[in-house]
Amino acid sequence: MAETKTLAATVRSGIGKGAARSVRREGRIPGVIYGGGDPAEPITLDFRELNKLIYAGHFLTTLFEIDVGGAKQRVIPRDYQLDPIKDLPLHVDFLRLKPGASLRVEVPVHFLNQETCPGVKKGGSVNIVRHSIEMRVPADDIPEAVIADLAELDINDSLHLTALPLPAGCRPTQRDRDFTIVTITPPLVVPEDAAAAAAAAAAAPAKGAKGAPAAKAAPAAAAAPAAPAKKK
After folding, report:
1. What is the rounded distance in angstroms from the CA atom of residue 69 to the CA atom of residue 9?
2. What is the DSSP letter of 231?
3. Is the whole-model pTM more than 0.85?
4. H helices within the chain, ranges in order?
5. Which of 148, 170, 180, 187 keeps 20 to 30 A from 164, CA to CA?
6. Alpha-carbon span 129 to 148, nearest angstrom
């Protein structure tokens, strides 16, 4: 089950771009809490705390209890905007969670026993097709991950959605097809044709020290005719 964290917020009086820029100049980030049958509530949050939470990872699957002026609400982040240049948070949206509610989230897949996978031991590679699965889950029991065990996969084997044990009360949003999660691909080895290599080496001309073909032996020079004897 996902951990619930606490977060302090204050009520935001103004709305719109001008009010949002004013909030950011004060070192805070504008946000909104919506859903659950109640009106949307504009809020502000501390910039440093929110920035740290976003970059810690798993922000969009973390449950929060937000204290807004003494009134606590159970929420989950639904979206956030970052500055396109500085990558700093500009705005965040939270969804209220009522008791018994369910919501749609991306649950990460954790892959176990990659080192002992038979296909990997034979030189194969783990090809991850899906790193997460979109599921509808209970708001009170959001799973941290879905487990994919590779302990029995050989080369060219694969795991599909129906082969994974899903947490209780969770169901995939795409139930019309059994999509692939991971496969074990064969090693990319090109066999060397030793006979062809030997034949090519024999057909190649011999080369000298500098890589140039060796010079052919010059034909023997013809014997020069004997000089005529001098007369006395």
Report:
1. 7
2. P
3. no
4. 17-25, 47-55, 118-121, 194-203
5. 187
6. 12
